[in-house]
Amino acid sequence: MSTHSRSAVPLQVVWAESMLAYDFGGQHPMNPERLHLTARLVRECGLLDLDGVTVADPFVASDEDLATVHSAEYINAVRQVSRNPGTSDAARGLGTEDNPAFAGMHEASARLAGGSLGAADAILGGTAVRAVNFGGGMHHAARSRASGFCIYNDAAAAVQRLLDRGAQRVLYIDVDAHHGDGTQSIFWNDPRVMTISLHETGMSLFPGTGFASETGGPDAEGSAVNVALPTIAGDAAVLRAFHAVVPQLAAAFAPDVIVSQHGCDSHREDPLTNLRVSVDAQHAMMVAVRDLADRLCEGRWIATGGGGYALASVVPRSWALLVAVAAGAATGPRTPVPEAWRQYVLDRHGVDAPHLMGDGADTWWRSWEIGYDPNDELDRTVMATRKAVFPLHGLDPWFD
User: What is the Cα 100 distance to its own chain's centre?
Assistant: First the structure.
């Protein structure tokens, strides 16, 4: 199998076994095994041996680091339940069914945040142009509250780090099946950050937010962008929506850096969502984000993981492809999955893993330029977003 790099763009991949400590327990969907299998597949594909690729051990973010996006009271509350996991703080979303307390929770969560902070530092310092933290993407965590399996918002911390150390504008793109509500809320009134989230509509999925009318605070109108996708959208609809909204706004915003969240729970096999997206379509969006970074901000791009609960059949393939895209590797959806990894999964989980990195899906999508169909549910939600936001950036919702 060929994994040669087309271009040795300096890439930092965040990984260490210590990241597996982010563990809510055996019955919880956020199983650290998905990270273990991803890291093993990334290695088996030879992606860590490519020119320009380095592996970074994440540090545990300090309270000062975390306080750039979280309140001191909240950080103290996380520390408290981390020391006493038998307790809870439901008002702050801690010790709940979604976010069970466990011993060492603060350190485990702060380490994921440190991974994304380290990625930001590498880009700021010029030792990397791209970075991938597939253990990150905890996008539901708000300033003072845990939510949706997320304790500290590593992506938001990375965005804030970039701003604090010189970036003028940061674009955050979120294609997780769930609305990136925490990140949106943290930067709701900051015109230096544009958050774009494409997700299954809140009418059918947690957290029940993320509609076109959510466009940012009074000092940052148009900085929050939401596409509430139809419940069972599928590949062609998701890709049509992405290309009808993201490239136009990205170009108008002109970011210095792109930070993206690639939760793969949009997949048709995911047990928690309904969007019915293939790994191939997820890969197509990764490529599109990378190309936007190359075109708009000299390649500067931090990519994180996020949701994804089909832990053996989907998550490792999707995020190994994310590393491949960032590395400029030849590994793609039609690449065979290494047999050694498939055997490992069979021995460990009794699961016959897919033979290809993708699903063999057709990722053709209808360009927005072909026309808008008011009778189509996808087109109506895309148009709602374009009407709400495009004019605020000098764009025409009908034609741009």
Answer: 22
Q: Which residue is associated with the tokens 């087309």?
A: 6
CA distance 224 to 389: 8
In the numeric block, which tokens belong to residue 37?
A: 């299998």
- Active-site positions read 140
Non-local CB neighbours of 321 within 8 Å, separated by 6+ positions: 279, 282, 283, 286, 331, 332, 333, 357, 358
Mean pLDDT, residues 301-308 taken together: 98
Residue 123 and residue 117 in contact, taking contact as beta carbons nearer than 8 Å? no
Task: Establish whether the linkage from the previous residue to 391 is cis, with ω within 30° of 0.
Answer: no
pLDDT tens-place string over residues 41-78? 999 999 999 999 999 999 999 999 999 999 999 999 99
pLDDT in tens, 198-209: 999 999 999 999
User: What does the block give as tokens for 266?
Assistant: 């949009």
Report, in this order, helix, strand and coil percent for the chain, each rounded to 5.
Answer: 40, 15, 50
Q: Phi and psi dihedrals of 130, rounded to 5? A: -125, 155
Distance CA 275, CA 232 (A): 4
Among 339, 338, 337, 304, residue whose Cα is nearest residue 322? 304
pTM of the complete model: 0.97
What is the SS3 string spanning 215-253? Answer: CCCCCCCCCEEEEEECCCCCHHHHHHHHHHHHHHHHHHH
Which among 130, 121, 188 has a CA at the least distance from the CA of 158? 121
Rounded distance, CA 336 to CA 19, Å? 27
Q: Kindly state which CATH superfamily the domain 11-393 is placed in.
A: Histone deacetylase domain (3.40.800.20)
Please state, as a whole number, how many other Cβ atoms lie within 10 Å of the Cβ of residue 319: 31
CA dist., res. 310 & res. 30, Å (int): 10
Report yes or no: 151 and 99 within 8 Å, Cβ to Cβ: yes
Side-chain-side CA neighbours of 379 within 13 Å: the count stands at 13
- Per-residue pLDDT band for 9 (boundaries 50, 70, 90) equals confident
